[in-house]
Design a protein that fits this description.
The complex is a heterodimer. By secondary structure, chain A is an alpha+beta fold. Chain A is about 20% helix and about 35% strand. Chain A has two domains: about 10-20 and about 105-175, Probable tRNA modification gtpase trme, domain 1 (Gyrase A, domain 2), CATH 3.30.1360.120; about 25-105, Heterotetrameric sarcosine oxidase (Alpha-Beta Plaits, 2-Layer Sandwich). Chain A has helices spanning about 35-45, 85-95, 120-125, 165-175; strands at about 10-15, 20, 25-30, 55-60, 65-70, 75-80, 100-105, 110-115, 140-145, 145-155, 155-165. Chain A has a six-stranded antiparallel β-sheet with strand order 1-2-8-11-10-9, covered by helices on one side. Chain A has a five-stranded antiparallel β-sheet with strand order 4-5-6-3-7, covered by helices on one side. In chain A, α1 (about 35-45) runs antiparallel to α2 (about 85-95). Chain B is built from 26 helices and 51 strands. In chain B, the strands form 14 sheets. In chain B, strands 9, 10, 13, 14, 15, 16 and 30 form a seven-stranded mixed β-sheet that branches. Chain B is elongated, with a radius of gyration of 38 Å. Chain B has seven domains: about 1-160, Ubiquitin-like (UB roll); about 165-290 and about 420-485, FAD/NAD(P)-binding domain (3-Layer(bba) Sandwich), CATH 3.50.50; about 295-415, FAD/NAD(P)-binding domain (3-Layer(bba) Sandwich); about 505-575, BFD-like [2Fe-2S]-binding domain (Arc Repressor Mutant, subunit A, Orthogonal Bundle); about 625-670 and about 765-855, Probable tRNA modification gtpase trme, domain 1 (Gyrase A, domain 2, 2-Layer Sandwich), CATH 3.30.1360; about 670-760, Alpha-Beta Plaits, CATH 3.30.70; about 890-985, Aminomethyltransferase beta-barrel domains (Elongation Factor Tu (Ef-tu), domain 3, Beta Barrel). The chains are: A alpha+beta, B alpha+beta.
């Protein structure tokens, strides 16, 4: 895997918040019937996370995260290197259950916005009420002109996922939104 | 002469002098000044020339309603025209120039128009420019372009040096306007615990009350304002924002707020404007009221101001418009101006009150102060041109006989007050005509309605028609309670209004003749006079909307804030109907103009539009190729070498690929995984051909149609296992087809067990093409890619040169070809490995143009070239890809309609020019005769046309009437140059018809 590189190789920007591309992150699209015991058991066993409620994200002791994407889709976030095995494990555990498990790690880019003003940076580009956005919240939305999803990776830290092809746009966008002197001062 | 007073100026910080430039002159103001107050403090009475007649114009108002004081602001990359001086806070180094004059403000050639005013009446442009028709292009249009607009357009090549941003905000209650009404409504709403946003367009809280004074609960109103702000500021659930104008109210409680972040401090780092995109549970508009001008002759002469504005300049900025101010009014409120001026030691020679009965308590107070008050009188006309020199006084009931001339430097006029109903009206709030105040005010029973039929806008204070401090506070208290749905608390006690009734006065004097009416300005910015509106009525204009457009009343950048009511009163009078019957024009956002930059927000320069990049994009950019947009991707069209034209580069790339080895970055092609027990059934419905019979390990080319039968997308489908397919789509079709699949699964076949995932970006995909393609892969090693192990239209997983790869043996070029998908994170490394290993075969990357030419040589269609949304697969001779065994597929029934099955449809053929030249793209083949529109009949058109380096001549495909039945026939294509090109109808496959080369 020495050939593997993320979209922007850890590009960074410092303004009213710190923006950094997070390198390679494992991600798995998991679709199925949430009401099914087999689905629930497989998802929880392989991810180590509890099944999240609507528009929520849960975290496991090993740092894995499981996010609610739609009424029949979850997103498992894990180490990049662990994704292929997790796909295999999920597929095996789900067996004949109608479901879909796909490794989408390389289709994505991940950014972290860190700092006291991280919520303001998000609210400049995403139509989301950041005033009450909690650490267990998860949102699929848009960041300006591209689709994105995000969650709070800490009290003052937001992780944003977008498609790999628009990583440069996302980085430029977040850098503009985090430009010096652009504090809004509402949260 | 206007000047700065020694005392006064509650908004000024006189310890901070500020230098600025106006028309090249260096002038001085203070921190807290607006550009307008600073100019007036420097006796700059004349601030611009009017739009049509180039008449001298001065400041009229003190706020957002100002029609005249518009300037070119800034220079170079910070230049912006039409900036309103009354809302521009002064800063050190401000650079402004006046507009609409040549050569100078004081001496303007265009002012000759004022002498021609008789010949430039309402509708002049409509009447004049109709005839003769031929004059339009060479005489009228250049003339109109030259004289159109007030300010200069910014230089087209200059980029705005500032940055802008948006901000999404959510509030239970959004209160618009930070006067006493807004403060009280916000306070009531905030105390309920709801989340409140309060925005104010100016840089100071308090609105008019701060100037006009009075008492609230026994304390001066200024103290109440300070205390309320402090209280609100301390509340967690309240957000306060100055310099933020609500530009529009939209459905579902959406409000646009325009915050001017650094306009007043341009040296500070940060965005210039911020557009607040606010979602509010309830909106309270506490936007106050605007004073109306009076229509008397010469009411546009510099030095004639609204009465309240005169008061504002004196109290807020310590500016006197002149030593002697004549007040002319039809209401009591304007007496405050006289009293204020007198208290400041200035002279008020007379108050001209149009009401025969005169005023109430305020009038008595004025008289007690020794001011002369004249009841039942009118200003017949204003003396002076570039500044006021005096007023001629007559009887309001008369026709304009001058009884007396009074010398003065300023005229303070007041025609009554109109509530600012714009925001209320944006979403359909209705108005009622208030006879007593002669204004339209919001009808609380007909509010803008939300999704459940609930009112989502409430007006508070003067904006709802409440006049007087006590009424304003009571009304605002109700509004705050209504916004939260909570019980109304006790309202603070404000001064009761003690005023005599106003009298509607729409023209002064009421019996003025034509000569005076031609000098009574209704809309000073667009130069519309009383006589223009009356002319429009005489010419048959009855609708206020039509009259507005005919006369241009209220169509300037101030949107008629001062002129609308006066204009429609004149119109109603001319039409002999009551004002409510005439109605108002439509109020639309923005309330005042907002910058284009704020609308664009961050979407400029690098973030203007997302550009999608493949994992190999850096490598491509390193070759400095010619890029073309394909969807949001940028794909290399061709990789020019130094000195090569595009044509030469394309030819080289094709020859190399056909003779040895070429590489194409095919990562942009859509890749959709379709999985589930019903996946085969699903794909049988989506594609015209049969996909359920595909064997795992095999590939099949498929066509997708809309339910109307038209070809929508194409691509190769690979069956991965019993339950799983991978569908390739076109580059532009990936997201669209993904959505198409989801739509059918979610809305029509929701009970089918199928999941779809878009994995387009998970993989980097490279087409390895040419007779040496297999040799290259064998050299890298890792899996068997022989014909026996991996035949044409088969796929296999394995390793290529150590990379995990899925290899498809598919060909869009007609050559031996492998399309290899590797994880996107390894795409760049894989590409490098192929380039390095391919060196011995002279490997070259090829671009999209080579791809297009090679597919055209093979007669392969391209979605978007051969199709345009009106083409069915049968038109393209693709019947072989349409299953006859299937009971149904999307588009099947549509394709059976008579017109679709008509043998007379234009069908795909190859076209070969007789002289070997390249046909122009999109050219039409002509047929005999003309159609009913007198146009030449046509019988076909070119869909793809190229120079083929392989065949060394022009080749083309086209849709031709009954084309396949007419092989060998020669048809003619007229070109733009006039000459006809002859082309022979041939088979569309120009190269390797048997497909031997791809199947080796």
């Amino acid at each position: 895997m020495s050939n593997a590189v993320s979209a922007l190789s850890g590009a960074e920007f410092q303004g009213i918040a710190h923006v950094k591309e997070q390198g390679l992150i494992g991600m798995i699209t998991l679709r199925g019937d949430f009401a099914s015991d087999a689905f629930k058991a497989a998802a929880e066993a392989v991810s180590g996370c509890a099944l999240p409620e609507v528009r929520k994200i849960t975290v496991a002791d090993n740092g894995n995260r499981l996010a609610w994407m739609s009424p029949d889709e979850m997103l498992l976030v894990c180490d990049h290197g662990a994704a292929p095995q997790a796909v295999a494990d999920l597929t095996e555990r789900l067996g004949g259950e109608h479901s879909m498990v796909v490794n989408v790690s390389d289709a994505r880019a991940v950014f972290r916005i860190e700092g006291e003003k991280c919520r303001e940076v998000v609210a400049k580009v995403a139509p989301v009420d950041m005033a009450d956005f909690g650490v267990d919240d998860f949102r699929r939305t848009r960041f300006a002109q591209v689709p994105a999803a995000f969650w709070m990776s800490g009290a003052e830290s937001v992780d944003v996922v977008c498609f790999r092809s628009v990583a440069q746009y996302m980085f430029d966008l977040l850098s503009v939104a985090a430009q010096e002197g652009s504090e809004v001062g509402v949260y | 002469m206007s000047t700065r007073l020694a005392t006064g100026g509650r908004l000024l910080d006189k310890t901070k002098a500020v230098e600025f430039q106006f028309n090249g002159k260096r002038l001085k103001g203070y921190a807290g000044d607006t550009l307008a107050s600073a100019l007036l403090a420097n006796d700059q009475m004349m601030v611009g020339r009017s739009f049509k007649y180039h008449r001298p114009r001065g400041v009229v108002a003190s706020g957002a309603e100002e029609p005249n004081a518009l300037f070119n602001m800034g220079q170079g990359a910070k230049f912006e025209p039409n900036q309103r001086a009354t809302t521009t806070e002064l800063f050190s180094g401000l650079y402004a120039t006046s507009q609409n004059h040549w050569p100078t403000l004081e001496f303007d050639i265009g002012a000759i128009n004022t002498l021609l005013a008789r010949f430039l009446p309402a509708g002049f442009y409509y009447k004049m420019f109709m005839y003769p028709r031929t004059f339009w292009k060479h005489v009228y249009e250049p003339f109109v372009r030259q004289s159109a607009g007030l300010g200069k357009a910014p230089d087209a090549e200059t980029k705005d040096a500032d940055t802008y941003e948006h901000f999404y905000f959510f509030a239970d209650v959004t209160v618009i306007g930070g006067g006493v009404a807004g403060l009280q409504a916000a306070k009531v709403a905030a105390k309920s615990g709801q989340k409140v946003l309060l925005i104010e367009q100016t840089s100071a809280w308090g609105g008019r009350a701060a100037v006009d004074g009075g008492e609230v609960d026994g304390q001066p109103v200024a103290d109440w304002i300070d205390a309320t702000i402090a209280e609100l500021d301390a509340m967690e659930n309240v957000t306060l924002r100055l310099r933020t104008m609500a530009s529009g109210v939209y459905d579902h409680g959406y409000v646009l707020g325009y915050e001017r972040v650094t306009d007043h401090q341009p040296d500070v780092t940060g965005p210039r404007h911020r557009l607040w995109r606010i979602r509010a549970g309830h909106i309270v508009t506490a936007t106050g009221a605007i004073e109306r001008p009076l229509s008397f002759a010469g009411n546009d002469v510099p030095g004639v101001l609204l009465a309240a504005a005169v008061r504002d300049y004196a109290v807020n900025w310590g500016v006197s418009i002149g030593d002697r101010t004549v007040v002319v009014t039809n209401n009591d409120n304007a007496y405050r101006t006289a009293i204020t001026l007198k208290e400041l030691g200035l002279e008020v020679p007379a108050i001209i009150d149009a009401r025969a009965e005169g005023g109430g308590a305020l009038a008595d107070k004025a008289r007690d102060m020794g001011i002369r008050v004249e009841n039942g009188k009118a200003v017949v006309k204003v003396k002076g041109t570039k500044r006021v020199e005096g007023v001629a006084i007559g009887l309001q009931a008369g026709e304009g006989a001058v009884l007396e001339t009074i010398k003065c430097e300023a005229v303070a006029m007041s025609g009554g007050w109109s509530p600012v109903v714009h925001l209320w009206s944006h979403c359909g709030g209705k108005l009622i005509w208030d006879e007593a105040e002669a204004h339209f005010r919001p009808d609380p029973d007909r509010a803008p309605k939300g999704d459940a039929g609930q009112a989502f806008v409430t007006c508070a204070g003067s904006a709802s028609g409440a006049m007087g401090l006590g009424d304003v506070l009571a009304d605002a208290t109700s509004a705050g309670a209504k916004a939260t749905g909570k019980r109304k608390p006790k309202a603070p006690a404000g001064d009761a209004r003690d005023e005599a009734p106003m009298a509607p006065v729409w023209m002064m004097p009421q019996g003025a003749g034509a000569k005076l009416k031609m000098k009574m300005w209704l809309d000073p910015q667009n130069d519309v006079k009383v006589s223009d509106v009356q002319l429009a009525a005489r010419e048959g204009y009855e609708s206020v909307e039509h009259t507005k457009r005919y006369t241009t009343l209220g169509m300037a950048t101030d949107q008629g804030k001062l002129s609308n009511i006066n204009g429609l009163a004149i119109l109603s009078d001319a039409l002999n109907q009551p004002i409510p019957q005439t109605g108002t024009t439509t109020f639309r956002p923005p309330y005042t103009p907002i910058s284009m930059g704020a609308i664009a927000g961050e979407a400029r320069v690098a973030t203007f539009q997302p550009i999608r990049r493949t994992p190999m994009q850096d490598w491509h950019e390193g070759q400095n190729p010619f890029f073309e947009p394909v969807g949001h991707w940028r794909r290399a069209y061709c990789y020019n070498r130094p000195g090569e034209t595009h044509g030469q580069a394309v030819e080289r790339e094709i020859n190399q690929t056909r003779n040895s080895l070429g590489l194409l970055d095919a990562s942009t092609l859509g890749k959709l995984i379709v999985k589930g027990p019903d996946a085969g059934k699903f794909l049988d419905m989506l594609y015209t051909n049969m996909m359920s019979t595909l064997i795992p390990g095999k590939c099949r080319y498929g066509l997708m149609c809309t339910e109307n039968g038209f070809l929508s997308d194409d691509g190769v489908v690979a069956r991965i296992d019993e339950d799983t397919f991978l569908c390739h789509t076109t580059t532009g079709g990936a997201e669209r087809i993904h959505a198409h699949m989801e739509e059918w699964l979610q809305t029509e076949w929701w009970d089918w067990k199928v999941y779809v995932a878009n994995v387009t970006e998970q993989f980097a995909q490279v087409a390895v093409v040419g007779p040496n393609a297999r040799k290259l892969l064998e050299k890298l090693g890792g899996m068997d890619v022989s014909k026996e192990a991996l035949g044409f239209m088969e796929w296999a997983d394995g390793q290529i040169g150590g990379f995990d790869a899925r290899v498809y043996r598919i060909s869009f070029s007609g050559e031996l070809s492998y399309e290899i998908a590797v994880p996107a994170s390894q795409g760049a490394a894989f590409w490098n490995a192929l380039m390095e290993a391919g060196e011995e075969f002279g490997v070259m990357p090829y671009g999209t143009e080579a791809l297009h030419v090679m597919r055209a040589e093979k007669g392969f269609i391209m979605i978007g070239d051969e199709t345009d949304g009106t083409v069915i697969p049968q038109d393209l001779g693709l019947n072989w890809a349409i299953s006859k065994k299937k009971e149904d597929y999307l588009g099947k029934r549509a394709q059976e309609r008579s017109h679709m099955a008509d043998p007379n449809r234009w069908k795909l053929v190859g076209l070969e020019t007789v002289d070997g030249s390249v046909l122009p793209d999109g050219a039409y083949a002509v047929a005999d005769g003309k159609n009913e529109n007198g146009q030449r009949n046509v019988q076909g058109r070119v869909t793809s046309t190229y120079y083929s380096p392989t065949l060394k001549k022009g080749i083309a495909m086209g849709l031709v009437h009954r084309g396949p039945d007419r092989m060998g026939e020669v048809i003619e294509f007229p070109t733009i140059g006039g000459a006809n090109v002859k082309a022979r109808i041939v088979d569309p496959v120009f190269y390797d018809k048997e497909g031997e080369k791809q199947n080796v």
